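We modelled the chain as a single entity of 122 amino acids. Its sequence is:
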Amino acid sequence: MGNAGTRIALASGNNYANAANYQPACVNGTNIVTVTNMRCDKTYYNDPTYGGNYNTSSSGPVDWIATGTSVYSTYLNGGYATLTGTSMATPHVAGIMQIRNALPVQNGSVSNAGQTYKIAVR
């Protein structure tokens, strides 16, 4: 059994820098999507990537943007914490791809530094 149809979601990283310069964000390929973080509240739209790595050209590796700010998540020693970053946004996109058995649907977009990012939804 091969891996045909397998989809992979990669976090762009949280350096607030060009995603093409970081691994694994720089990996591109069929069914590989790179995700950056979007803050959910409307008070911070001047910087929708909110710390996540980003594209510097239209051919950059970041494919999708998703909510990854103030996400209540599991944490060390069986605890819970509110976390922010691309490691919170990427599981949202991975879950969408699993449920849909396809890439996410786009519901609008946000722009930052001249680049536009598709908002991933189910």
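As a brief sanity check on the tokenised model: The CA atoms of residues 28 and 50 lie 22 Å apart. The chain has one helix and seven strands.
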